[in-house]
Amino acid sequence: MEIITGGVTAAKGFLAAATAAGIKYKDRMDMAMIVSEVPAVTAGTFTTNVVQAAPVKWDKKIVAEEDCARAVVINAGIANACTGAEGMEYCQKTAEAVEKHLQIPVKQVLTASTGVIGMQLPMEKLTWGVETMAKELAHSKESGHQAACAILTTDTKSKEAAVTFEVDGKTVTIGGMCKGSGMIHPNMCTMLSFVTTDLAISKELLQEALKSDIPDTYNMISVDGDTSTNDTVLLLANGMAGNQKITKKDENYQKFVKALNYVNTTLSKKMAGDGEGATALFETKVIHADTKEHAKILAKSVICSSLTKAAIYGHDANWGRILCALGYAGVNFDPEAIELFFQSKSGQIQIYKNGVATDYNEAEATKILSDEEVTVLVDMKMGEKEATAWGCDLTYDYVKINADYRS
Amino acid sequence: MEIITGGVTAAKGFLAAATAAGIKYKDRMDMAMIVSEVPAVTAGTFTTNVVQAAPVKWDKKIVAEEDCARAVVINAGIANACTGAEGMEYCQKTAEAVEKHLQIPVKQVLTASTGVIGMQLPMEKLTWGVETMAKELAHSKESGHQAACAILTTDTKSKEAAVTFEVDGKTVTIGGMCKGSGMIHPNMCTMLSFVTTDLAISKELLQEALKSDIPDTYNMISVDGDTSTNDTVLLLANGMAGNQKITKKDENYQKFVKALNYVNTTLSKKMAGDGEGATALFETKVIHADTKEHAKILAKSVICSSLTKAAIYGHDANWGRILCALGYAGVNFDPEAIELFFQSKSGQIQIYKNGVATDYNEAEATKILSDEEVTVLVDMKMGEKEATAWGCDLTYDYVKINADYRS
Prior knowledge:
- In chain A, 33% of the residues lie in helices and 28% in strands.
- By secondary structure, chain A is α+β, with helices and mostly antiparallel strands.
- In chain A, the strands form 2 sheets. In chain A, strands 1, 2, 3, 4, 5, 6, 7, 8 and 9 form a 9-stranded mixed beta sheet that branches. A 6-stranded mixed beta sheet of chain A has the order 13-12-11-14-10-15.
- The first copy, chain A, folds into 2 domains: 272 residues, L-amino peptidase D-ALA esterase/amidase (4-Layer Sandwich); 123 residues, Ubiquitin-like (UB roll).
- In chain A, α2 links the parallel β4 and β5.
């Protein structure tokens, strides 16, 4: 597997475009479109929130009922959630605009929205955007990057990842882009993530590969504990790599699963590290847990703790809050047996052992906690299972961004 | 039932004192003691965190094994959690100091601590504090109030409540004090709360009354989702009101339960409204739910949502976040059927109906959301059950307080 630059247009036959449709933002691109030259089998996972946005309902139906999809239209600024029948009509009209300008059937057009809940979309701007982008679609690194920029809301960085690997002597590419900064606490998937590949694979195995990877990637991040109404991960595979179609869980399938995991993990970490107001990516790795499920619950409890997140912002080695967050996670363990470490590129120190603080150097701890990527390593001393979760620090800017998001 | 001023010394035969022992704070009272003139039957509920502070372990044993208790010694500044065997020894030595100076048996002395986790207590200062307070114990409103001030940490206000009611023609009093501002997400009880009464009642019924009231009071508040290692509610009943001892669930027991609920609810709301950095008490009332459990889960999900809390701080009628928080609570409902209202002393407006926003006046919503106590009313339209939860807004000051709490 080779890591390459690029995103959603890295794989063969995937085109993208972006435009400034003025949906809510006035001075930036806010619509993106991804198109496959040929029909692509499509897998998707969606929010578990009872309140589901119109595009989530729209996409779920297509992923469940259609063999293939060819286009995805995304807008930022307005989430098209809690918009009633009108919201569903917008999905329909968007798809009709794609059919009109690109001759792609309505039922092969996926939609995704992100932004304010409860506001209605300006339909004319959306259809204008589709028409404009239809003329500008390109299979280039630049067009993919522009699409990655156009889908952002409070994100500060675009988020792309891509890899290549070999199947049957053919080079297969997977590339993806995502957005997500606030209301990030995915359950079954995360905000918006779009992954494309030119691999030839059956729809069943594509869905299975995605479904089995989500629990270790998108579902292991949290910015604020709020599971969005719009969470969507779409994975399109158009077969243009020319490999023999994967239809069983052979060695080639495993190669794909591994490469997909890399792309999804990278995109997930980018979202966590760019959480609203964040100054640091906050990783918690739990090792030697008795079960995988317990490792996950413990790791997520730490990265979700507001007090721990605020301490990370303050570069404060307040390990008591970490122990507290492990303690209320709902998993039983012996607090006297476990060990805690802080890690970053600046080094590693042990903080807690035998039920009390080690005699660690506070200045050294502060130095480690001042890096842009900080890891808490928790050794449960109970078994062989492990899990990693990703979050970010809690800062003044998180409050600032969210105290008056709508204005 | 009559609401009166006063706190932990309101009931007959309860004395209190406070002192500045210099445990961690340099310029304020940081120790308090409550003493009953006669042995009091005692009930308690404690944190469900796997990591439990030494005083929690100490008190649990006394409440479970002893018939009565007479004293409670409390310190602020250091939590005596994650302090190993040394931490337990401090509880023992504190109780021995009480025995020495007040001739109260070690096994009738309860202890409670709040503050930084993982730091060891300065034992000599603690025993000095006990000796000093033993000389100053008084049955007065002032001594109770000083105790309520001495137990605070990041709290900005002392928290007391008291009521009287009649049993057998005798006046019975219940009074209490509590502290709690951060790491507040009680499960089975909250930070530290001490309630005293002169009612004569059996230990079994006292424990039952407390246990059945906790789920509707302390367990319905949250400041930051972090369940503390030290959560403790102690309820002492010394029988000095002179009523015939309550030994069955008769009319008198019901009177007591009602009065206790008032005291616990009042103390709980005071904690939520004084959450770290808070500018407002944020109440969510869920009505017409199908089950009580669902009503509670939904109400707590809203007051725990960081995004909603930040919006309350910004006086921003961002109802989409409320709907989102209801949606991920884990309870099934029809988002198109429910209705949302904002309420405060300034009025009430309906915000959401039939799956979309109502045509509400934004200025009116902002006015309501600018009050010091703000309520979201959620009508589930499913049944007859209801629940109320209390939290606070999420502010810059929460981050400030917690980014460098230890310094």
